[in-house]
Amino acid sequence: MKNTLFILITALIVLSCQTRNSAVTSKRDYSFITDSLHIDKQLEKYKLPGFSLVVFENYKIVYSNQTGVKSTNSKEKLDVNTAFSTASITKPITALLCHILDEKGLINLDEPIDKYLKRWHLPKSKFTENNSPTWRQFFNHTSGTNQGGFSDYYEGDVIPTIKQSLLGQIPRYDKEIEFLFTPGTSFEYSGGGYVIVQMALEDTLNKSIAELAQEHLFGPLGLTNTTMIQPNEKGFPVDVASVHDKDGKVIKTGLPITPQIGASGVWSTPTDLAKLSIEIQNALRNKNNKVISYNIAQKVTGVTALKDAVGGWGYGWQKSVAYNNYDWFMCNGSNTGVGGSILATMEDGNGFVMLANGEKPNRIPVINDACIKLLTVMNWNKKIANENIQEIPLSLKKQLIGTYNDFLYGQGAETKIVEKNNRLYVESQFLGFFKGKNENELQYLKDGTFKIVDYPNGLKFDISNEKVNSVVLTRGSMKTEVQITKK
Fold it and tell me: Percent of the chain having pLDDT more than 70?
């Protein structure tokens, strides 16, 4: 299993595949999606075994398309009920489950997580002597723990316990999980942090995380094709997609076993993940929500980490984009031979989920192309009030133009400010990743701050001696200063 951030910073077998697609009954004809995406041709071009997509609009699933096969060994076609390993899409689901348990009074997310642990305890650290991390700090990756991602296991392998995982007695790690900074002061993507959450849940409630998820979330929401049960356990579903390598060959048994379930152990379908997303969207407007409360929806999708946090992070959900004037909650999952994405708007009930059972070179181009086209053809454009945009003074323009370090997302890539047709545009690898447009206008507001089209954070540049020194990124009441280096 790979760190999901890889998919965020990467720009992004030959089969006779047949497409099964169905537009869910609606007043609008959604066949234009099929005509726009050409998924079957994309699969053939990139040798991707299978791809499953669901689109939702106005709080309803309106389009479903399954293309390709579950396994190149069997050539059995994907169907709407075929579940995929969802990798790190698991993380916001685990965070959501914990918030539901907190609301029911079974745990307290504002307490230090260590008091809930029995099989193992947090290692002693100078960073936690006076600041023991709470549950919530593990959800938004501000706890300070390391261990980004984990290796896969298959039938016949020795499967480690989660205690062994935390002790570093597994491939990729040779020492116990540790703290890198004082909890709450920075951001470090940590799959290991979610393993700690899993252990705390199981130690406290004396049930597996799979049982808890089924009882409190999957069952009540009617997610019949979603589970945290693993391929080596009783009750694992039969209708599943195998993982494949870059040559389109099934990897070992095709069914990866994930002991670190809280971090990346969910198996699901785009339909079920769309239902989950719509439930959150309904909860955000406090209408038609059945399981997730308005309070919980606000908490899990709100931005709670901004410093070094790839543009913004909530409790499990990434909050890094503002495509077409919407605030989006999103998550990407990337395991060996499988991966996908959820993108959903905070308002109006729009979005899509896609999962694919191939390696990065095979699936990422297909996922990227589908994201770009969907964001275009669905025409989800939110009207916003006049933001008092004004002309950028010529002297200020000249000072801003240049090539800088990545001050927007902190991922090491270059960020450029360029002039075109008397306007300034920002070129950023990440901004162009899903939208397919690596130029976003930099707009100057009358209060002296800036905004970038499709970027969610406000900006206030510190300029002195005709030099840009830093920028303060703001999101609601949160702010963080980023030093700027001109190249």
Answer: 94
Q: Do residues 222 and 248 make contact, with C-beta atoms less than 8 angstroms apart?
A: no
Q: How far apart are CA 202 and CA 298, in angstroms?
A: 26
- For residue 2, pLDDT beyond 70: no
Q: How far apart are CA 4 and CA 83, in angstroms?
A: 19
| Per-residue confidence (pLDDT) for residue 23, from 0 to 100 | 42
Long-range CB contacts (< 8 A, 24+ apart) of 290-299?
A: 290/220, 290/221, 291/100, 291/217, 291/220, 291/221, 292/96, 292/100, 293/103, 295/103, 296/96, 296/99, 296/100, 296/103, 299/99
What is the model's pLDDT at position 468? 94
pLDDT band at residue 17, thresholds of 50, 70 and 90?
very low
For residue 363, give every residue at least 6 positions away whose Cβ sits within 8 Å of its Cβ, in sequence order, or none: 46, 48, 51, 338, 339, 340, 356, 357
Instruction: With beta carbons less than 8 A apart as the criterion, state whether 151 and 172 touch.
Output: yes
Angle at 404 between CA 327 and CA 454, to 5 degrees: 15
Count of alpha carbons within 13 Å of 138, Cβ hemisphere only?
Answer: 31
Distances (CA, A) of 427 to 35, 114, 404, 414: 30, 43, 10, 8
Would you say the C-alpha torsion 234, 356, 37, 75 has a positive or negative sign? negative
pTM of the model: 0.94
β-strands 60-68, 19-22 pairing: antiparallel
Strands (E), 47-158: 50-57, 60-68, 84-85
Six token digits for residue 16: 């006779």
Higher pLDDT, 441 or 12: 441
Is residue 26 over pLDDT 50?
Answer: no
pLDDT for the residue 15: 28
